[in-house]
Specification:
The complex is a heterodimer of chains A (326) and B (303).
Chain A (H helix, E strand, L loop, with lengths): L1 H29 L2 H6 L7 H11 L7 H13 L12 H36 L4 H14 L3 H19 L18 H39 L2 H8 L4 H38 L5 H10 L3 H29 L6
Helix pairs in contact in A: 1-12, 5-6, 5-8, 5-10, 5-12, 6-8, 7-8, 7-10, 8-10, 9-10, 10-11, 10-12, 11-12
Chain B lengths: L1 H7 L13 H11 L1 H23 L31 H37 L1 H16 L2 H7 L9 H11 L3 H15 L2 H8 L4 H9 L4 H24 L11 H9 L6 H29 L9
């Protein structure tokens, strides 16, 4: 099992390296930092622009290979270069990464856990009311883009607030600016703000998982080994939990890896719409600012998150499926 | 072979029952699946709205009516106008047409590509297999949203939306190709494939003539699901102004422009969003129903 995981890990490191390099080269050749400086008022002299670009390693007159070598040697020592305003990318990144990770982690855990539970239960109660309601709900949710869900939830929240005349539902920012209080009041304030964006992210994930888990569970429920488990004296509940659910979880784990990329992209919209200053919102802003190093750093972060999710699913896979461990 | 055919040719055809036609059988099953019928009806209706809407409407997609800005639905503007006086009905239906086209093209391109890559990887095996599947893994890891966003400057101009179609397709073939590869590996050991190989049929002919037709039903169902995926992807990009670029218009652009007025002038947002949701829902219904109808194992599962 150690060998299996080590091999996967090596594969992931190579993939992250390639993905980040690709994103950097693409950003460096297609974004136009020169235009950013030339647009400034008053217009700087061409020499001044060149100096600025050179000092930031963004000059498009330097060969791309040279710029890439300079940038990559920095990245290997943990230095992601400077953003177009001259700030250090790495230190900003850790702050923004925290925001995104808080959002993604909670939403992933919540969405996948509830989705798996609902899907598995729906399969056990096939064709009953619960199953029909769950299937229909996940079908409809899967047909609505995350962007639309986010906006609609925001509209509903604002009309609820208007109707009640209080700020029952917070839908902007990660915390109230200038809010001061004891640590638990601050925490409560953050939780209050996190409720809606987390819900938006989790609901799409919930739908995907409920649907998938239901199908997987149905495949397993009629299997011989479940009948054998009950025949040897386990109760139906024990047989379903220890044998059926465990087996049905294995393909779902693989599926998790595929959905995680979509979740990270979905987090981008949620952050932007709900005014969270995380990686996704940063990415969108920096593309419009022609900020090459930030784009590359966010790509690196996204690749790392997806890899971490894949590695986690490999671990779970190895734990659930004894055949991998040999 | 030829001797048998010659001896049979002059004999009168016996009055045997006609061989069960796969297509007719499939048609019957599809008609029997309510979701497919409802989904298809909705799609036909939406296609009619998308192609006739801009013709029926008295306004042009980009045209501005300066006497009616941000006005609710009236007899003149059936779904109201936006802040600059553009007719929402015309905008949304013209956008719907483009979104439908994008969805269909992406599905055709990516499913075709996925089928070829998966089938060759599975059939040829060895280094080719490992190389192709590693490429698929890499494409899964590449930050596709970032890449599409960076390249969005190329979506402007004549035929720029076709670039978007190609890029969307380039990032949606991977999972299908892995599935096709798995199926190909199990098909490869069938007798008729062995027979073809021993007769000296080249690999590409075997893949195209024997392997891919055998999983055509699965590919069709998968392509349908991909239509909705592409439409959702385009909407998401357009929300940030990174999708289809003006003067082309897509449903995503109309929704993005309307989202700022979602509370103050709901019609600007609601009508295009409703069109989008109904379209994706209809496509998903057809795809889901197709998958059930085509997969003999799953028919027992669902009502």
């Amino acid at each position: 099992m150690g060998k299996f995981l080590a091999r996967r890990m090596l594969n992931y490191v190579v993939l992250v390296f390639i993905a980040t390099s690709f994103a950097y080269v693409l950003a460096a050749t297609h974004l136009d930092p020169r235009a950013y400086f030339e647009q400034m008022q008053p217009p700087p002299s061409p020499e001044a622009v060149n100096d600025q670009l050179d000092s930031l390693n963004l000059n498009d007159e330097t060969p791309i290979a040279e710029r890439y070598a300079t940038w990559m040697s920095g990245v290997l020592t943990g230095d992601f270069g400077r953003n177009i305003q001259g700030g250090d990318v790495a230190s900003q990144m850790w702050m923004k990464a925290g925001v995104t990770l808080r959002l993604i982690t909670v939403a992933t855990l919540l969405g996948s856990a509830v989705g798996i539970a609902v899907g598995a239960y729906a399969a056990v109660r096939q064709y009953r009311g619960f199953d029909k309601a769950a299937t229909a709900a996940s079908f409809v949710v899967l047909s609505i883009p995350t962007v639309v869900i986010a906006i609609v939830v925001q509209v509903i929240a604002s009309s609820v607030n208007d109707g009640l005349g209080t700020q029952l539902l917070r839908y902007s920012g990660e915390y109230s600016a200038g809010f001061d209080g004891t640590w638990w009041e601050l925490l409560l304030n953050r939780l209050h703000h996190a409720m809606l964006p987390t819900f938006v992210l989790a609901v799409a994930l919930f739908a995907a998982f409920a649907r998938y888990q239901r199908n997987m569970m149905l495949d397993v429920l009629g299997a011989d080994f479940v009948r054998t488990a009950m025949a040897k004296g386990l109760t139906r509940r024990q047989a379903l939990f220890k044998h059926a659910l465990r087996t049905a979880l294995i393909p779902t784990i693989t599926y998790f890896t595929f959905t995680f990329g979509a979740l990270v992209a979905g987090a981008t919209f949620t952050e932007k719409i709900y005014g969270w200053h995380g990686m996704g919102a940063w990415l969108i802003d920096s593309i419009f600012r022609h900020d090459v190093h930030v784009v590359a750093a966010v790509s690196w972060f996204m690749a790392i998150t997806i890899m971490a999710a894949s590695f986690l699913s490999d671990l779970l896979y190895a734990w659930l499926d004894p055949r991998v461990r040999v | 072979m030829s001797t048998i055919e010659e001896s049979r040719a002059p004999a009168p055809v016996p009055a045997a029952p006609p061989a069960p036609s796969r297509l007719r059988d499939l048609g019957r099953r599809l008609i029997g699946t309510r979701r497919v019928v409802v989904g298809l009806l909705l799609l036909v209706l939406l296609a009619a709205v998308a192609f006739l809407g801009p013709l029926v409407s008295p306004w042009e997609p980009g045209e501005r009516d300066f006497s009616a800005m941000l006005e609710g639905p009236t007899t003149e503007h059936w779904a109201g106008t936006n802040r600059t006086g553009q007719d929402i009905f015309t905008q949304a239906t013209a956008g719907l047409r483009k979104s439908l086209l994008i969805g269909l093209l992406v599905a055709v391109f990516s499913t075709g590509f996925a089928a070829l890559v998966g089938a060759f990887a599975g059939y040829v095996g060895g280094v080719t297999d490992r190389g192709l599947m590693w490429t698929a893994d890499l494409a899964l890891v590449l930050p596709n949203f970032v890449i599409l966003a960076i390249l969005s400057t190329h979506f402007a101009g004549d035929g720029g939306w076709l670039v978007l179609v190609v890029l969307l397709a380039a990032f949606s073939w991977m999972v299908t190709s892995k599935m096709v590869r798995g199926l190909t590996i199990s098909l490869r050991e069938r007798e008729y494939i062995h027979a073809a190989r021993f007769m000296g049929v080249p690999a590409h002919t075997i893949v195209l003539r024997h392997i891919l037709p055998n999983m055509s039903s699965l590919l069709i169902a998968d392509a349908t699901i991909m239509v909705s995926g592409a439409i959702i992807g385009e909407t998401a990009l357009s929300y940030f102004g990174l999708g289809v670029q003006s003067p082309d218009i897509s449903l995503g652009m109309v929704i993005a422009a309307g989202s700022a007025f979602a509370t103050t002038a709901p019609w600007v947002f609601a009508f295009p969003t409703l069109l989008l949701i109904v379209m994706v829902l209809a496509v998903n219904m057809v795809g889901d129903g197709l998958r059930d109808a085509l997969d003999p194992q799953s028919t027992s599962r669902r009502p």
